[in-house]
User: Fold this.
Amino acid sequence: MSTPPVNPDALREGGYRLIEPIGGGGFGTVWRGELTGPSGFRKVVAIKLLNDAGQDDPELGRRLRDEARLLALLRHRAVVGVDDLVRFEQRWAVVMEFVPGADLQELLDEAPLPPRACAEVIREAALALDCAHGARHPETGEPLSIIHRDIKPANIRLTRAGEVKVLDFGIAHARFGMREAKTASMRFGSPGYVAPERFDGDDRPASDIFSLGVVLVEALLGHRIGQLPVRPSAFLEERDDAVDSLPASTPEPLRELARRMLAYEPEDRPAAAEVARVLQELGGTLEGPWLVDWARAHVPGPEAAVGANPTLSVPEDTGGGSTWTSRSWLHGDPSDALPQAAPPPPPRPPVASIAVGAALVLGVALGAWALIDDPAVEPEPDAPAAVVPSEIPTTSVSSPDPAPEPPPAEPDGDPVDAPATAPPPEPEPVPAAPAPPPPATVRVEGTVSAFTLLTADGRAVPPGEVAPGTYGARWRFDDGEPIEKPALLTVGAGETAVVRCNALTLLCAPR
Assistant:
């Protein structure tokens, strides 16, 4: 299992720390991690991180981000919660609810579930699917049409307290504008749990019900039943054989529910809500302990989640360590704000004209994209000096020059005073240029690859100090398509507007 080097001792307030790997596959590793905060705050989390093999496949990165965004839209006790979507050493990672315990496959390797506890597990999973199948976007109200596509015992987790969590929405099908991955129906699913219609590329909520029906039968039997044939006659024969082989303690209503969930035609299967209702009605009539009692005796507790090798190799200190610092909207630490692009120097004043509007273009740049995930933060520029108009030359106004006088003659009598010359008038004072309005400031927070403001005439302006006014915006997350909003915010002179970009929803909006 390829894993990144970690430094468990590198802690930082508001950041995540890797503790130990607790699972994984060929492309990713799930770690037990820790979120640390001020005043000794600590929370155990699960961190799904792409490893070296997965990092080289852009599609896997898109699927990981899609899973985080889907789970962020689902709120149900039986759906594992997602806390954050972050970058760690240039790798995407999903921070999720840590669920101690064991998955259903591990428990079935030991023994089958008693009917009553089994009914509770399947009921909770059905409620989770009902939540997913009926989910709508919280802002637009459009149906998300989420189909899990990989329901199996390994993706249903139980805790010692009897909680049930449906995991791994990484290959789910959904209709939502934030989706990045282009998953094909035939590529995904686990053999033995794939509904017949999916072999024809037909994904629908009833396909998840079929998979859950297989889990129901296997949980009661304690072993796999294998992939049912695609040919209808052979399919029905093997399905009935599997249901008929259930333990004698399985009542007929539960057998009948299993047959309906495993119907060949998707239209003949019950919806997730009906499955949950039937199992709730049957619960009190079934044999065996309730799930909470059975789980207390058979599911490992939180202490078992701490592996036998809590000490991990520590690489040479490079100043970073294996610690995340979340910059997402979920935490909002002011120190997590993205670096701001420094505004360009003020324009040179005109030589012989009054630059009344010169200050209105301070902070405007012509670049199409302002990449804001550069860790280097430019120093704050000095406040621009007020633009002073150049002095306009003036001409003194006076009386015409008198004609040259002849040499003075000797006076014959009393001298006559020469006429006085009028002094030149004072020049008209030139009014000073009005003081430019103070600039506005736009700050961007969140994990976003590129962000630029757009003026009314379509010019690109980097965030930072800008002229007061109304701006649209264009942004991009990682290698996704650019997203543009014509009118994002209005900011006045001297005001500061903060835009938060959310990698989970692919949205940027004023705070």
Remarks:
- The first strand starts at residue 15 and ends at 24.
